[in-house]
Amino acid sequence: MGLEQFRQLLGKATKRPWRIQEEAEITGAQGWWIGPPARPIDAALIVQAVNAAEAFLEVAEKGQAFSKAYAHASIADEEGLASVEDFRTAWKAADEAAKEFDAALAHLNEKLGA
Question: Is the CB of residue 24 less than 8 Å from the CB of residue 36?
């Protein structure tokens, strides 16, 4: 499953936030019953992961964008194929992608309660 398929799955799943009710039963938004896991610790992990899933996805997508921008800038730099202006534009795009990736990581840490 790729990132786009995962995003679609999140959109179709029971709405978040999910919560733990009595005896480790999991419910979704509007009280939809999800089910009981085998152990309470499993319920905690499932709820935390589901509620932070969009933030995890955002980190993965921003990481991909940064990787692509950095690779583009590095190739232009190594091969000397870019004009000075193209070189600056490529590295500026890589820097912006890095900032967006850092912001996504910060958002994920907030969602995880760090």
Answer: yes
Q: Are 54 and 114 in contact (CB under 8 A)?
A: no
- With beta carbons less than 8 A apart as the criterion, state whether 24 and 16 touch: no
DSSP string, 68-82: HHHHHHHHHHHHT-S
Residues 36, 23: contact at Cβ < 8 Å?
A: yes
User: Which two three-digit tokens encode residue 114?
Assistant: 């760090």
Residue whose entry in the numeric block shows the structure tokens 């193209």: 86
Q: What is the pTM of this model?
A: 0.79
CB-count burial class (<10 Å; 0-12, 13-18, 19+) for 29: exposed
Q: Which residues in the chain show pLDDT less than 50?
A: none
In this structure, which amino acid lies at residue 53?
A
Cα–Cα dist 114/109, whole Å: 5
